[in-house]
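User: Okay, second chain of the day. Same drill as before: sequence in, C-alpha cells out.
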Amino acid sequence: MTAAVSIDSVRATTEAALHAWLPRQRWYGGGLGIRSVHIEELTAVADGDPLVAVCIVAVEHDDGSVARYNLPLAVGSPQVMRPSDPGAIVHEDESTLVFDALADTRTAAPLWQIIASGSAMTLNDGRLSVGGGGLDPDAAEISPLVREQSNTSLVVDGNYMLKMIRRVVFEPSLELEMTQALVAAGFDHIAPPQAWLHYHRDGEAHPALLAMAQPFLHNGTEAWTLALTSLRDLYGEAEEHLPGDAADRVQTVEDAGGSFTYDAVRLGEMTARMHLAMAGAVGRDVAPQPITTALLDSWADEMLGDLDALIDGHPGVVPGLSEQRPVLERRISAIRTLTAPGMAIRIHGDYHLGQVLRTDSGWTVLDFEGEPRRSVEHRRRRHSPLRDVAGMLRSFEYAAAVALMERIPLRDPSWAHLAAHGRSWSTANREAFWAAYVERTVGTRLLPDPGAALTLRRAFEIQKAVYEVGYELAHRPQWVSVPLAFLMEATP
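Assistant: Same drill. C-alpha cells below.
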C-alpha cells in the first residue's frame, strides 16, 4: 500500500474524530460549536510506519465562520509506535493509529528537516516554501516546550526552538513582521527568526506561516513562573503574621524572599525600549503614525462595542456588569477628549507575564501574534503602546489572584488576609513597572503627558479585562472572577 493511499484511507475517520479531539487542545480557538470538520490538505512528507503528513484542517462553526488549523499527522500501526502523550491520539482502531506528529521526536523530525534544509515542496493542494534556513537538519532530540500558549513549541537538540503556528491564516505573519522590524531597529530582547515555513495556495493573496525556527533560550524562565514563586513566598510569610494595616502589608511584600519589584522595574525598562524601537521602525506596514482624534474615537467605540457584546452575550454569567456599564463608559469615553495623545505603533498585542522570559542576559519577549480571539487585520493595526502596558499591568493582578486560588479555597478563613497581601504585591509591582516605563519614555513623542497617558492606559485596562472575561468563559471559567472583579471595582 502506498503512502498516499494509506493517508487518504484515514481521512474520513480522522475528520470524524477531530470533532471531539480539537476542543480539548489548548491551542484550539474554541468558544463556538463545531458544525463540520474538513481536511483540506493531506500530503505525506515522510514514508514509513508511521507516515508523517502535512495536514490543514478547516473547522466550520455553528455560526458559519471557518477557522483553519495546522495539524501535522502521524499515521501508522498501533503495534509499531505510540506517542508518549495519550492526549495526542486523534483516532485509533485495531489496524490504524492517527496522532499529532508533533508529539514524538521521530514523527516531528521530518518537519524539522524540511525547515532546516530549506526544502521547497509541492503538496496535493498547495506548496511549501522556506525562508532563511541553513540549519542542521539532523536532529537527535525534539521535545515539546510545555507552556500556556496558542501554538506548539518544540526544542530541537537544545539549540533551536521550533514554533509550529497552529492557526492557519493567509495573511502576512505578525510574528515575522514584528521580529524582523525589531531586529532592524536594533532591539535585541527577542529570539530572532532563523528559518520559517510558508504554505502557499492558489487564490490566496498571501501565504500562511506554518512554522518558525529561533534560537533556544537556555536557562530561561517565564516571568509568570517567577511571579507565582514570589507570591507563594509572600503568602507563606503572610500566613505567619496576624492581619495588619496597609503599611504592614507593604513591608511584608518588600521583605518577602521572592520579591518581584526589581524584576518589574527591569521589565518596565525593557518594554519601553521595545516600544521606542517600534516608534523608529521603517516601512509601510510598521512605521509609526500620530494618534488622531478620529483614532481615539474609533478606539472608544471599539471598547464600548466589546463591553456591550460581553454584556449582551452572557447576561446570566456576568451579573451586575450592565449596572456597572455607565462607570466603565465614562472611563472609556474620557479618551475622546485627549489632546496630543502620542504615537500609534505596531505593538505586541497580547503582552503579559507569560510572554516574557528571563535568561542570564535579561528579559526576552516572545510570541508577537497578538490576541488570538481578534482578527489578523485588527492585530496588524497600529495602536497606542499603552495597550501593551495595560496587558502587563493586568497580568500582575492575575498572578496575585491565581496564586491565591492555587493555595487555598475561597471559603478559607484566611482568604481575606492573604488576598490583601496579594493586592499589595500587585500594586507594588504595577507601580514599579509603570514608573520605570514612564521614566524611559518621558520626553519622547511616544506618549502624551502623564495625566493623559494615565487616562488612556486605564481605558485599555478596561478593554483588556473585558477581553479576558470572554476568554475565560470560553477556556477557563474557574478564572473568570479575576477580570470580572477588576471591572466591577472600577470607580468613576
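Confidence is low (pLDDT under 50) at residues 1-5.

User: Thanks, on to the next one.
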